[in-house]
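P.,

For your records, the input lines for the assembly:
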Amino acid sequence: MESDQKIIRQSKWMWENCLPHISLDCVVFGFHDNQLKVLLLKMEATQKWLLPGGFVLKNEHLQDAAHRVLFERTGAERIYLQEFGVFGSLNRSEGFFESYPDDLWYKQRFISAGFYALVDYTAVNVTPDEYSDTCQWSNIDDLPELAMDHQLIYDNALAILRQQLSHKPIGLNLLPERFTISELQKLYETILGRSLNRGNFYRRIMRFGILVKQEDPRKGGAHKAPYLYSFDPLKYQESLQGLDW
Amino acid sequence: MESDQKIIRQSKWMWENCLPHISLDCVVFGFHDNQLKVLLLKMEATQKWLLPGGFVLKNEHLQDAAHRVLFERTGAERIYLQEFGVFGSLNRSEGFFESYPDDLWYKQRFISAGFYALVDYTAVNVTPDEYSDTCQWSNIDDLPELAMDHQLIYDNALAILRQQLSHKPIGLNLLPERFTISELQKLYETILGRSLNRGNFYRRIMRFGILVKQEDPRKGGAHKAPYLYSFDPLKYQESLQGLDW
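Structure tokens returned:
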């Protein structure tokens, strides 16, 4: 197959330029209008679904490699990217390329660093990689079967994203510049997959100290106009470092 | 030097048995009687201080390698060990063995997975590794200079341990089987390095739902006997998976 030839050609380039045994996988969550999706690729050669990922160049920092992969797939730069776990079990990916020559780059044992990002999926342009014919957003309630251990990596990312909601802020780049508390609550509810008590949400979100109340409420609408808020960029960045006791 | 010869001999064994480019470093916090310490090694060849670490055998899961390293240094088994970050910058360790032959195992670029553990330091036996003449607990307020990027790894581990106090339980294996809320609060205060409000602490710790109140208060002492608590092992394990909104 033509796609097999491509993998074998790429393999040679990888051995020359990349750090063996190390890979990275990105769980890119996309949010827009109260929908949460995840970015997936379909491999040309096997027609299996995978998370976008890549390798680390010999002269490249690991963190830069993750940003490069994210940029290559989405065009998005300066996106908050969080390393959330290392996947280092035996046989997590080695068997996937069974039918290929033994010296194929992809047949080695890889220990993979997982990164997650959260973007507004209408604000980025997704692009397949060189092995894939499809790169698309899948609704998280209706994912196709993922190959290798990518379901585990995805499950971990979602669990950690949900945990981190309780002690790290979220919402920058995902909400309009000015938003209501109710819009912010919907973002949290979409990520958590369940509804939250309005009063509890208000108290907990205010504890972060990252919101700036705007002078003028939103205009129009039949009900009492709700107050608008924006993020305080400095306090938001500080809070990303983690809230403690 | 004899210790140099040992490193060169070990290097050959590493190339045969371990996965290149991958290492792991363990930040082992020791707690006892309201003191927090960290386990350090002093290398024989360079007399520099390092965190205990190791490599991954070709046929070994990454997580098992971390447990093996912890067991080799402390004799402790079944200790809660948390992967907390990957350290993958260029030149984080490569320069450390400058004066050695280029094919030395330790001179390659390593991407290192960081694990932390928290043990009762009076309950374990520390043992130096094959390159070190000293393995000892250092008080966290008075650490020696650490080589490579091990200060960064340590700083990250402490920051993450402190963050995780707010959403994961802590204390099993560190406190007596039955303890007072005040003893548990002291553990938190020692790790955080500052005092906490008693009422706030009580409310937050009760939210975890991991404590079982004992029928009989502690006997003896001049004051009103405080209630004793123990951990509910099942709820403790569940809560380790993370508390959310």
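Two observations worth noting. The domain at 181-240 of chain B is CATH 1.10.10.10 (Arc Repressor Mutant, subunit A). The longest strand of chain B covers residues 18-32.

Regards
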